[in-house]
Specification:
There is one protein chain. The protein is an alpha/beta fold. The protein is built from 11 helices and 21 strands. It has helices at residues 66-75, 93-109, 111-116, 147-156, 173-182, 196-205, 227-233, 250-260, 313-324, 328-334, 337-343, and strands at residues 2-8, 14-20, 23-29, 41-44, 46-51, 53-54, 57-58, 81-89, 120-123, 161-166, 186-189, 209-210, 238-242, 265-268, 280-284, 287-291, 297-299, 302-306, 358-363, 369-376, 379-383. The strands form 4 sheets. It has an 8-stranded parallel β-sheet with strand order 5-8-9-10-11-12-13-14, sandwiched between helices. A 7-stranded mixed β-sheet has the order 3-2-1-4-19-20-21.
């Protein structure tokens, strides 16, 4: 058993957390003798539903290796992430199959990786073919919904595909949604140009999430009705939003959170495989993309068109706090408890019996996080070099 101290993210209370094995053995008031201003905050580890890769490695890759998967996963501990859904976007069957197979092997090889990956996210290839809604997904790989293909991909993953994003107007989508939901897969609406009637049909069939609402859309929409309003107004749908400061305006972040409430809003960074790479022009399957000095990722030489996110989950949580005025508790929960509940996996909490997935951090100007330590399943996986407060 070992012990750590921090200020709870939800109420600021200083606590002592005792960890035994992979679980929290007890949480007790710290009863400090002096001030606790130098104590870090402690929160449940973050959980991001949409991570495409990191530092030049994409999960959707035919020849993806186990080492590449493990390296990519490890990067995210430093950002306070203890669980994530590796996300594979629209690609050839071979690229998707290779990526899912490598993720499965990595999870079977390393216990920590298996715990970090409670599932995978397939984003596409059953999406809109239209420019705008399709986003940066390669047109030549967009195709009709194919249940047999999905089953082969899920088999390659070891049954790990827990979230799938599709467009309601894709051929065969409604029947596909029903089959997927019956099989325990959470269906999200995204990269769509659907009519309001098609959106409603998808939700009636079992869709429960809007993937990065406000992105993967036409540059110009009719005032109303349209597919963004329809998803925003349907109380059955939770909305995920990319709060990186580039993908959607701050006003839209506020609108989504105030409309859906934090209980039905998910924060994701949607980090591209180029996140963490230096500025420059890169070639990917869908064409040339450019990382600007600001960290924004765009279509090469066309900075008005986004091509992925270069920010990580902790930054997105902080940005939501800064521009939407949400509490630390709500911001953390939107990047942890809420997505876990949506996809039906364990909700991590600071309480006895919960898995010991904890992140210790300070909050600086503009609500920016400075991560001190990330503990996953009772093991410290990342530390900024400072001694964890109270550790013994």
């Amino acid at each position: 058993m070992w012990q750590v101290k921090g200020r709870r993210y939800d109420n600021g209370e200083p606590v002592v957390i005792n960890i035994e094995g992979e679980r929290i053995a007890s949480v007790q008031p710290a009863l400090p003798d002096g001030p606790v201003a130098d104590w870090p905050y402690v929160a449940p580890g973050l959980f991001d539903l949409q991570i495409n890769g990191h530092a030049g490695i994409w999960f959707a890759k035919a020849d993806l290796t186990t080492d590449e998967v493990l390296t990519t996963l490890r990067h995210h501990f430093r950002f306070g992430v203890t669980r994530l859904f590796p996300t594979l976007i629209t690609a050839s069957f071979e690229a998707l199959h290779g990526g899912f197979a490598a993720i499965r092997k990595a999870c079977e090889q390393e216990h920590w990786a298996d715990l970090m990956v409670p599932g995978c996210h397939l984003e596409g290839p059953y999406i809109s073919r239209e420019d705008g809604p399709r986003g940066a997904h390669p047109l030549k790989q967009v195709r009709a919904c194919d249940w047999d293909e999905f089953q082969r991909l899920n088999e390659a993953s070891g049954g790990r595909i827990k979230l799938l994003t599709l467009a309601p107007e894709a051929e065969g989508a409604i029947d596909f949604i029903r089959k997927a939901v019956a099989a325990g897969v959470t269906i999200a609406i995204g990269h769509t140009g659907a009519t309001p009637e098609q959106v409603t049909a998808a939700v009636d069939a079992g869709a429960r999430l809007s993937t990065h609402l406000g992105n993967g859309a036409h540059g110009m929409l009719r005032r109303h009705p349209n597919y963004i309003w329809e998803q925003l107004g349907d109380s059955r749908l939770t909305a995920s939003i990319i709060t990186d400061g580039h993908h959607i305006p701050d006003s839209f972040i506020r609108t989504v959170i105030r409309t859906k409430t934090p209980a039905r809003t998910v924060i994701t960074c949607d980090a591209a495989g180029l996140a963490g790479c230096p500025p420059g022009v890169y070639q990917i399957e869908s064409g040339g993309v450019e990382i600007l000095p600001s960290g924004k990722i765009v279509v090469a030489h066309q900075p008005q068109f986004l091509a992925g996110s270069g920010q990580l989950t902790d930054h997105c949580v902080a940005h939501a706090m800064n521009v939407a005025g949400v509490s630390l508790k709500d911001a953390i929960d939107m990047a942890g408890r809420i997505p876990a509940s949506l996809v039906g996996i364990e909700e991590i909490a600071i309480r006895r019996g919960s898995r010991a997935d904890l992140v210790f951090f300070d909050i600086g100007g503009n609500s920016q996080f400075a991560i001190r330590s990330t503990i996953a399943a009772g093991c410290e996986q990342w530390n900024d070099g400072s001694k964890l407060h109270g550790a013994k």
